[in-house]
Amino acid sequence: MEKQERDIEIRTQVLSVDVEKVGDFLFEEPEHSFLGKWDLQLSPASHDAANLLQAVQKLQNSDLPVAFPTETVYGLGADATRGEAIAGIYNAKRRPADNPLIVHISSLTQLRHLLDLSPGSDTTPLDGIREDPIPTIYHSVISRFWPGPLTILLPLPQPSPLAPSVTAGLPTFGARMPSSRLALALIHLAGVPVAAPSANASTRPSPTTAAHVLHDLSGRIELIIDGGPCHVGVESTVVDGLADPPVVLRPGGVSIETLRQCSGWKHVVIGYRDGVETGVPRAPGMKYKHYSPTARVILVQGKLSIQLLTTHLRGCTNAGLATTKTWRVEDLAVLKVSITQRTAKAGSALRYFIVQNGTPDAMHCNASNDGHCSTLTATTGYTGIADGKDSDAVRVVVTDLGTSPAIIAQNLFSALRELDMQGVDVIFVEGIGADEGLTAAAVMNRLRKAAELEIRS
Q: pLDDT above 70 covers what percent of the chain?
């Protein structure tokens, strides 16, 4: 840790792992799922398995964290039982020490052992038996949503096997079983619970690709496992079932509507605010400014207007526009705004363009990769200025986040990062209705934490 504190450069390696090629997942009856007992038989000749084992060894022996993909975002993982390893997470992210970490587990057996270290405590089935160290209130949501994007708040056992820095002094800890088979394989093979916040520099947008992690943490960590892009795009929903009624502490990949369908969760309430909160955070993402690109973010609820844009474009040379349901590129024609569009040629990365019919996923592709940039519809030299005074104009890069909350959630962090890479000074984001479900609420929660200003027009 001394080396990190002195800012000595660390060589960061990115290793690709295709979980379908690492070996065979073996499940025991009767559950025949990750909620029951399972094992992983590695393929001896698999290059992907060898790469995965490198990450396993780092988790077991190194004090520097390992970045790995989950279904939500990329995580920055360390052995949750070793204080030196947890310090590596805080140092790499430059994360405040009073912000608790979520503990990721690969099985209910592992979770039960964390909660009760006495012999036989890890063999209790998930059937509501009183002796189960997992509180009964969580049985229904575990059966419904695990493995998956749901974090549950649990009482910290005494004595606790977790490093004190994991919980930031709280009497509880958050636990989650990810649905990503790659994440489950990594945790299972490491044989330790893995504390893992998002693998980004603190306050930056969460990473949904290995490239995002490398951009933020190159030189701070040794290893990134590249398992491809994350498909949920926002972090897990965090719930406190120890409260009466149960509380959603952070919106995420599981909606409040589906939570209310579970036994004991009919009256679950919202216990978070979208702005930056004060006091001791009960869950990650509650207290500090999060998810922010370098550019100013302005969240707009409603229509674009000439007055709105001209007011906030003063002094800007480059701007970003992230659209969802109603904004259109054509709306900018009423402004003296130069819109630069360029398509990528073979072998060149996409950098300056407008995505009108594509998504931020297309923004990250390379034109040399079998031509998978066909969704980009752009023409060189397009301008929205009638009088052609380009020298006084602002270049605007526009990207479509999608229209459904699930697609917007999947694309949000990627789009904010890409617009930042375009060197924009300000990003206008079209908001959506938070009443469209918890996924929409999660999107708006992240945007409000990222935004410097929210405007209703």
A: 76
